[in-house]
Amino acid sequence: xxxxxxxxxxxxxxxxxxxxxxxxxxxxxxxxxxxxxxxxxxxxxxxxxxxxxxxxxxxxxxxxxxxxxxxxxxxxxxxxxxxxxxxxxxxxxxxxxxxxxxxxxxxxxxxxxxxxxxxxxxxxxxxxxxxxxxxxxxxxxxxxxxxxxxxxxxxxxxxxxxxxxxxxxxxxxxxxxxxxx
Amino acid sequence: xxxxxxxxxxxxxxxxxxxxxxxxxxxxxxxxxxxxxxxxxxxxxxxxxxxxxxxxxxxxxxxxxxxxxxxxxxxxxxxxxxxxxxxxxxxxxxxxxxxxxxxxxxxxxxxxxxxxxxxxxxxxxxxxxxxxxxxxxxxxxxxxxxxxxxxxxxxxxxxxxxxxxxxxxxxxxxxxxxxxx
Amino acid sequence: xxxxxxxxxxxxxxxxxxxxxxxxxxxxxxxxxxxxxxxxxxxxxxxxxxxxxxxxxxxxxxxxxxxxxxxxxxxxxxxxxxxxxxxxxxxxxxxxxxxxxxxxxxxxxxxxxxxxxxxxxxxxxxxxxxxxxxxxxxxxxxxxxxxxxxxxxxxxxxxxxxxxxxxxxxxxxxxxxxxxx
Amino acid sequence: xxxxxxxxxxxxxxxxxxxxxxxxxxxxxxxxxxxxxxxxxxxxxxxxxxxxxxxxxxxxxxxxxxxxxxxxxxxxxxxxxxxxxxxxxxxxxxxxxxxxxxxxxxxxxxxxxxxxxxxxxxxxxxxxxxxxxxxxxxxxxxxxxxxxxxxxxxxxxxxxxxxxxxxxxxxxxxxxxxxxx
Lengths: 181, 181, 181, 181
Prior knowledge:
Four copies of one chain form a homotetramer.
Chain A: H1 3-11, H2 28-46, H3 51-54, H4 65-88, H5 99-102, H6 107-110, H7 113-132, H8 136-139, E1 142-145, E2 150-153, H9 154-179
Antiparallel strand pairs in A: 1-2
């Protein structure tokens, strides 16, 4: 395995998201359960880390553990917003955001991670309540992503964010495993 | 005073926001302090209300107290997003949302208000940390609101949301005063 | 006014608790409302304070603002415990604790105040739910305080902690007023 | 296997706590990590459960899932108190509490589980900060448990509560496994 391949592995510990995934009604309960489990999993993943460990990059040139923790609610509040936009408007065009620049904003340096863990808990509680109340027609509602220049259904968005939570938790748990923390 | 005027009063207990307000650098600390104080003020405003009181409309045909509480973090996470978009992109056009339709989504019915109070606490902690790190040039950064068809600076957005928190808290405190709760 | 008197004022900004207070059934709703309002009031009281301001003593030789914030949930979880002990046992003798020594334990230095504000929110939500479910006979249940060498009823304890929350909030708000923060 | 044995299994899914366990300095970091991981593990264990599932007993005649969730912070705030008492007094006699009666108090019925998950998060954050600041001499400090009529060191108490969190999480995860939830 080459250094490049290894670096790819560190970046995608559970593999890349398959953008052409077919999501059907039978998958929704499991995917919702994964989104429901994300805040607890992230909280456990960072439990007991020291300040220095939180400032460690999960891979060379990657974000620090702290940046990962602050990124997850920033990302998921954009996802939550996309769900609500698609449920209340007819195929709206959503506003993307530049996640790497957001991760460098000063709140990510200054705020203790507890705050973002709490933010994620509360956000997911509302999000999961919404997801559980959605029927199949709701999951077929769509929005337009202007950078991908295509439509996504909420069923696909559900799969993306079930993956996304596990993806970032695995950044931290795989670092801890490698480091023996 | 006519019934119409009274109804206006109930809707705008602290008055309407002045969209032509001039905000200068000397105003920022006070406005940031108002945003910092909003989560505690909202929590105090609803403290001890019964389930029936939470289901009471703050004015005829208005939202229930519970809907008001769930609306505030939904609104403020959109505001937080607009700050981060304007800080990381060059005069981005933001995505408005239909707040009345969001207030009817099922999570606003199903989730206890504690969750939205916690969401607001955590969101404001990150937001205030960001605001305190911004300099005058940052507050002059702007975004385009496509429905108003004009630019707003982050200084103006700061004033809007300082008002917005006090506005909704006053919906609840004025209801409690009228009802003797 | 002498220095001693001034120092007394700073220590008791809302006055001392009257240990011989008579509390009757008509007082309970107001006292419960005061306990319900404490977490929001404390959160508002510290909103937007800088790290240096949090490390400032609220009076010469007194606790820092940060210590006050961490003290309140430590004190109130002891109070919550006393309510539950008196409700489930027959006039139990409770265990006092040495609050000044607790305030010097290392968690009060190391933990951000957000954590204690969240702890207080959650603790009071459970406590207030308990208080609202109590009838007059429950408030007449008693416990023995071995240092005061006397019985207290839960009605008296309710009055004490309604005062206690306002007392510590006033330490912080009166400091901010004096300092112009 | 007899019915009695099966019932024992459901009650002790990870086995009983060994009250004669020897705990040494080398064990503390792992035990602290287990206590740090408990709030995330409990949150994940209940993620996505319906109201009916929360009202299900984890075993015949046992507590409901909801009662288990509310019990954990009640128990751990007593444990946290015992740590602080033993650190600030000389072998104090602590006050036991009747956990089965506490579990029947009305707050356990009336309060959403989110509140107790938040309470546990915040409490463990303070507790773990305290534990990490303790040295070997601190863990050798002791308190007297009047019902067991013996001394326990804080090292032993640490082991007990590392076990206790995993014990109750396993009540819920083993129920979900049996029920296919």
